[in-house]
Write the structure tokens for this entry.
Amino acid sequence: MIEARGLTKRYGGTLAVDDLSFSVAPGKITGFLGPNGAGKTTTMRLILGLDRPTAGRVTINGKPFDEVEQPMRQVGALLDAKAVHGGRSAYNHLLCVAQSNNLPRRRVDEVLGLVGLTSVARKRAKGFSLGMGQRLGIAAALLGDPQILMFDEPVNGLDPEGILWIRNLMKALAAEGRTIFVSSHLMSEMENTADHLLVIGRGRLIADCTVDEFIAANSQQNVRVRTPQPDQLAKLVAAAGATVRENGDGSMVVSGLDPARVGDLAYENAVRLHELAPVHASLEQAFMELTASSVEFHAGVPEAEQPALAGKVA
Amino acid sequence: MATTTAARPTAGIGLDLLRSAGRVTFAGALRSEFTKIRSVRSTYWALIAMFVVVVGFGALASYGAATHNPGGPGWDPTRQSLAGLYIGQLIIGVLGVLVISSEYSTGMIRTTLTTNPHRGVMIAAKGVVFTVVAFLASLVTAFAAFFLGQALMSSHHLSTTIGSPHVLRAVIGGALFLTACGVLAFGLGLLLRHTAAGIGTMVGLLFVVTILVNFLPMSWQNDIDKWVPALAGGQVWMVQPQPPGSTPMFGPWPSFAVLCGWAALAVVSAVVLFRRRDA
């Protein structure tokens, strides 16, 4: 159980984490979402005691991490793939980490096998690809067979095979009853893996709920309709309080009514329908809507490109 | 024991442990830091370079003295054979900085501190391991330089023996001098957390300051020299007192204590900051 109360971190004039309170429940995958610069990494650094909070506190099973007696038995963390001395072999890297917690040497061989690095164990980490570096970092995190695992943007920069491997590993670890706390700015990743979500923007917590609740609460119900009488249907649904958007392909998207209500309206008014389909809002879309106001650096997407983005989401 | 691990399903990842395993202890931290220092090439390069340069220059200086210098009232064959220590201090200093600054330059520090968040234990272990390794390598180096130098000078009857008064103290003192310079550098590396900045400051403090004080008026030097780290530390590996006319220094051991004081100042301030700072 990770618990933060009023956690705040200020770097000079920048408020990176602003009065965060949350708990990460055991035995689940909790996704930690936010746009780049939202304070995800800072929060993880605060949990792990790398940085000291300006105010508030964060504990692991009731204790600040730097007071935990068996740190690697409690928490395994992968903050970034390159937190390794490149001149040291993978084996020696893991050995020195294991020794610092009095973990037996055989654990090094075990985790090397687990992440598939046995054949390069004696090679210096300098020559490792990003994916191999990621595996080495995960091997170090697993050395102590920890109850809690923390991953900061674990799929960043990985090829599809690497992404799949990490996704399956997280699911397997969660299935063993472990607590997984994983950050990402990729909503689609969370949709596939997370049970619970913590969403932050500009250092503040903006949502703490399940994935389904998050989508339901933060995105409107959309219905795609195709009809030979578009003007008539548009008037009908508008009168019922929905909004209509024309798609370029002759179909239209009705927002604010469920599919049954749209079908009934059409039937009652003798409007023929050729297609009636619910459009499931993705986490991506819900996230965009929620964090639109809390992105630190707006890229300034030109107006003309907005419909294209919206289309991709549906 | 068995019950603690059986409580949880552990497909492939599980760990059968004695109850004591998994705890952070000072002994474990020492083993970890020893693995670190022995598993990177820079340790070997630095120590081999130190040995070759100190012994090599000592041999050159001794051979030169044997063929050119008839000796004299201030003649100190021990000091002559250990002359390479003037360069050796910088090489051990580079290693002292690197031992800690490489944790920061490579990002290893994030793994180190997220797996052992007990910073005091970790940094004490690193300091002890470096100090012991540096002292043993320095001891071998100092004795090798001494015996080779004396062998080269013996044919000209300029040499001394390890049993002569103060000679053993001076040779061991040479090893202690190198070790203290390394520890000072370790403190600077931890304070600055940057390899180039650490090495630059170390060279400045041990080498450049030593040269610069020569340009000050003699009356100032009389007050300053005994406090300059490398000048003070150098007293412990000399058998003869400084020749007449040179600036007054403390005795060998008090002078060495001055160097140790500088090292302690660097290390203590660095450790205090290290325990408080964001990593």
